[in-house]
Amino acid sequence: MALVKDAIAFDGVGQTFLTDTGPLTALSGVDLRLDQHEFVAVLGPSGCGKSTLLRLTAGLMTPTAGRVSVFGKPVDGPRDDVGIVFQQATLLPWASVADNVVFPARHMRGRVDAQDRAQAQAIIETVGLKGFEQRLPGELSGGMQQRVGIARALFLNPDILLMDEPFSALDALTRDAMGFELLRLWQASPKTVLFITHSIPEAVLLADRVVVMSKRPGRVIADLRVPLGRPRDENALRTPEMQDYMAHLRGLLIHKEVA
Ligand SMILES: Nc1ncnc2c1ncn2[C@@H]1O[C@H](COP(=O)(O)OP(=O)(O)OP(=O)(O)O)[C@@H](O)[C@H]1O
Predict the structure, then answer these.
(1) How far, in Å, is the centroid of ligand 1 from the Cα of 220?
(2) 36 CB less than 6 Å from ligand 1?
(3) Rounded distance, CA 16 to CA 159, Å?
(4) How far is the CA of 177 from the centre of ligand 1 (A)?
(5) Domain ABC transporter: where (predicted)?
């Protein structure tokens, strides 16, 4: 089947919040497109509206200007073809790993059937948690909890995966390992990924394209293809070409942060 162009499209998107101290414009004039199965990382200063971009894509809010479309249709509410992974896994602490993973089925259909259980088991195995199905989140390490969060986001086999700094609370080694695990999952079952991070190496190692946003009100100031083939490993970042590429990204970020 041919891949869809512009699986996610932001056209002149703006978002202004009404706050106690007056209107706050988080995003202004954001234009961005992702083709189906593209992996796009977003870098930008704190508060520039990166999480807001994800919430708009997930249909958790509607933009105050412009339009967000998924597969050609304006987003007008939460969608079941979109999975979200947050910085903290936000698991139900009293529910087992297996129950956390099937939670979207319970939430959407009000019940969980044998097929859901089988599907959850397969995903739990895919993310490397076989044997931990009946454990509670509190019994797991941070990396394992984040794996449960990823399994839950993948449970409905969404076309689109939105990830909001999913590995930033993890130690450096676990973080790197989780990044490669994510790539493995993405290559085995391709998805359109919008991935927010503060880490330039993480963005470069994972993504097809890196988008840099300005400070608030956030807009896209650079949209650069990553000049690396796949598969990738950390050594790929050590070449002079990649060091220059990352220095360029850093320059864009630092310059725009103080501008
Ligand atoms: N519901 C809301 N009501 C009021 N202001 C909001 C709301 N959501 C976000 N904001 C404000 O909008 C701006 C952008 O927030 P957002 O969380 O999207 O930024 P971010 O780029 O993800 O930040 P960070 O990198 O620090 O996580 C911030 O100034 C934030 O305080």
Answers:
(1) 16
(2) no
(3) 28
(4) 29
(5) 8-240
Residue 48 CA: nearest ligand 1 atom is 21
Name the more confident of 183 and 89.
Answer: 183
- Integer distance in angstroms from the first to the last C-alpha of the chain? 45
Question: How far, in Å, are 62, 63, 99, 122, 145 from residue 133 at the CA level?
Answer: 36, 39, 8, 11, 12
Q: Which residues of the chain does CATH 3.40.50.300 include?
A: 8-81+158-258
Q: Whose CA is nearest to atom 18 of ligand 1?
A: 49
Residue 115 Cβ inside 6 Å of ligand 1? The answer reads no
pLDDT over 80 (residue 135): yes
Of residues 188 and 26, which shows the higher confidence score?
26
Q: How do residues 203-226 score in pLDDT, each as one tens digit? A: 999 999 999 999 999 999 999 999
Share above pLDDT 90 across residues of the chain, in percent, rounded to a whole number: 74
Q: Is 51 in the pocket of ligand 1 (CB under 6 A)?
A: yes
Vertex 216 angle, CA 210 and 217, to 5°: 95
Residue 1 pLDDT? 66
Is any atom of ligand 1 closer than 6 Å to the C-beta of 26?
Answer: yes
In CATH, what is the architecture of 8-81+158-258? 3-Layer(aba) Sandwich (3.40)
Q: Is 106 helix (H, G, I), strand (E, B) or coil?
A: helix
